[in-house]
């Protein structure tokens, strides 16, 4: 349960410092993981980003104070991290559906997001098929792009990125260049920036040798990997399996994710069929 406990410690830290300027490194330090891993795990378990959680909680407290005190709206805007009353009003209306002035007058309803407590349900009813693999360092090559993350699990624009690489033949070229142990194409998430809410996503293939023009390289150090089966059509099978890994498998095993980018391995030639077989690779410590 160490992973869950460390995540709750980070959440408690965010709650204590809701009115302060805190960085991704400050938050992740409480969970003893990197900023990238903390954001990824947090989003998988809660279906929202760290930034979205902070925004929702601050606006919840702002609404409570607006309804119960005579504090000026401009003062509340600055208190809860907004540069202007206008930006505060826009964010307030997006969450609550009414303006701060309407909330003060008791017009309309307020939407409250309560303090988050992570509770993991260790069902164990459905088996998870996985294997442990020890590998020396290896390389992957591919196409890398930066994306703005959404407010929930998943990265807007990535499905279109896959469609584009399939359409222009780059996926086929990567498959031809694949000469490593992991067959198929890899989907690699790395370099998450909580402040900007962006992440790099690469469509790649394991490759040993000369790097053709136009491709980026990705280095994986020697590590022990937990390799999970994801059976069923994508993306649902990948999303469901990933959630089970972090909400069930990690809490019930004495492992923690290592500071190495995890990836999806799309092995099946038809990832959308009912019994499609693909894998999720997560380095462990």
TrEMBL record:
PROSITE patterns registered for this protein in UniProt: HTH_ARAC_FAMILY_1, HTH_ARAC_FAMILY_2
Pfam family name, one: HTH_18
Molecular function GO labels: DNA-binding transcription factor activity; sequence-specific DNA binding
SUPFAM superfamilies, alphabetized: Homeodomain-like, Probable bacterial effector-binding domain
Keywords associated with the record: DNA-binding, Transcription, Transcription regulation
PANTHER family to which the protein is assigned, alphabetical: RIGHT ORIGIN-BINDING PROTEIN (PTHR47504:SF5)
UniProt-recorded name of the protein: AraC family transcriptional regulator
Record lineage: Bacteria, Bacillati, Bacillota, Bacilli, Bacillales
